[in-house]
């Protein structure tokens, strides 16, 4: 099946599809595409999509016509995932993942675990002109974040807390001196 999206839409969800070719030429209001339990899906993106979520899939090919259209792709338990980003008609960035991002052993453990839905998720983004793949972890309130981002956030939060502590100490000292 082949579909061409030539007008704005809210969101694109692809579920349990096989042998699908999708071309997106216009705006997606939420800037999100979700692909779930699908096989042999080829998506060509000629407009900006902030996030593509790919879960439990096989043979997924994403082609962005412009680096400015790409922000991130998140996937779990997906094999044969390919991402190509073109610039001026030339392939500029490429990512290929041939294997499932969680092993059969991990999947079996998850099936026996009450927390089945907590499968390993990866995110790929363009950072400093390179495609960077990182594992997502769940921070406070289950917010998805990479370990690198979580570490950066904690460092910044600790520095801000220290500045606040020093400011309060100085304020208390000034108040004590003013009352004496």
From TrEMBL:
Residues 9-85 form the Adenylate cyclase-associated CAP C-terminal domain. It holds the Pfam family CAP_C. GO terms for molecular function: actin binding. Residues 95-115 are annotated as: Disordered. InterPro entries: Adenylate_cyclase-assoc_CAP_C, CAP/MinC_C, CAP_C_sf. It comes from the Eukaryota. This is Adenylate cyclase-associated CAP C-terminal domain-containing protein. It comes from Rhizophagus irregularis (strain DAOM 197198w) (Glomus intraradices).
């Amino acid at each position: 099946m082949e579909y061409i999206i030539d007008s704005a839409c809210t969101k694109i969800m692809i579920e349990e599809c096989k042998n699908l070719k999708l071309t997106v030429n216009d705006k997606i209001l939420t800037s999100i595409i979700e692909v779930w339990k699908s096989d042999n899906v080829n998506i060509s993106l000629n407009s900006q999509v902030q996030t593509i979520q790919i879960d439990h899939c096989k043979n997924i090919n994403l082609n962005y016509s412009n680096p400015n259209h790409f922000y991130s792709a998140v996937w779990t338990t997906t094999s044969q995932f390919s991402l190509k980003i073109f610039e001026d008609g030339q392939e500029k960035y490429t990512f290929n993942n041939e294997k499932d991002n969680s092993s059969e052993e991990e999947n079996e453990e998850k099936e026996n675990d009450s927390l089945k839905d907590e499968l390993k998720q990866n995110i790929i983004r363009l950072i400093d002109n390179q495609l960077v793949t990182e594992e997502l972890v769940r921070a406070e309130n289950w917010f998805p974040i990479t370990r690198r981002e979580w570490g950066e956030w904690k460092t910044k939060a600790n520095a801000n807390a220290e500045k606040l502590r020093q400011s309060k100490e100085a304020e208390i000292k000034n108040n004590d001196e003013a009352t004496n």
